[in-house]
Structure prediction request, 387 residues.
Amino acid sequence: MLKPVAGFAAFGLFWGAWGAILPAIRAGAGVNDGELGVALLMIGLGALLSMRLTGYLIDRYGGMVLPVVMVLFALCGVLPALAGSVVSLSAALLLLGATSGATDVAINAAGSHAEADTGRPVMNLAHGMFSVAVVVASLGTAGLRAAGVGALPVLGGAAVLIVVTAVVALAPGATRTVRTTPTEKRARLQPVLLVLGALCALAYLVENAWQSWSAVHLDTSLDAPAGLASIAPAVFAAAAATGRFAGNALLKRIRPVPLLVAGGVVAAIGTLVAAAAGNPWTALAGIGIAGLGTSVCAPTIIGMAGAWAGPERRAGAIAVVTTIAYLGFLVGPAAVGALSSAWSLPAALASVAVLAVVVAALAPVAGRLAASPHGERDVKEPGTRLR
Prediction:
């Protein structure tokens, strides 16, 4: 159980630092906002190119893939600090995205394997550690920036910590993981994986909409002071961590589908409260509620996919689900921006509540599909109850 938790913590360490150090990356590369936006798209493109391949490699070669892709991710994480133009920055972010997507699949596969091996819920705990690491790294990087530390030392330091994690916590015993030879049947896009991927995409869309727009909402819609508005993403991340730890404990007592339904409903309520708030403090409360609700959705869905697939196809199944889900993560902020231009930012954010309701409504359907005869033998594994 230590490996997925350590892997998610290291992953969150980088992305927490990244969000805080991005202005320094922009200045170092000498790009304007438009050029930076184009370059940032390369992260998503790189991830989409690598995720399914990583699932195949894990199913073929086992747990040794995780420490390898983690080290590659750490090394590529330093490259943006060395970029001096929009072209070099785009190339660096393409590599960063490819290794990030590979790492995302690998740590989720490790978490699903841990659930099957131990009979205990792991995914929400691991995702919770990601959220904690994001908050800690973001605040720590903000302090370093205030002290005048540049992008290269920050990202270099994060890379060292990630490599140490890969070598000390992830590499030992990695080659002992069972290997399998994927077949054409295992590589197909099964309907259950498409449904779970679509649900996870909706959950990620809700999550990233608030992570990206919460501070802007407080600043522009509610005229909050800059300092108060800037803590909104941290409030969301802290609530997400709390929700995931609580969700991990709840999965010892209830099945995944009811937790997913509750998560979608709570996320919708929090979203509506935050979007309709008349003052910043009410909005922050709503953002926290939304974070609590949406936090359990993605890890629970990914865990359901891993339980359905079984050990021989687990990484490939998770790669399919996370690849589809990543589209929602990428589309979310842009969709809110487009709707905001057509309506208003509060209205655009309120519309996200509809997607959270869809997740809650379709969760039982996904649960029935994931408990189909095709996955019956895997549902019998400890800790993989689906309904």
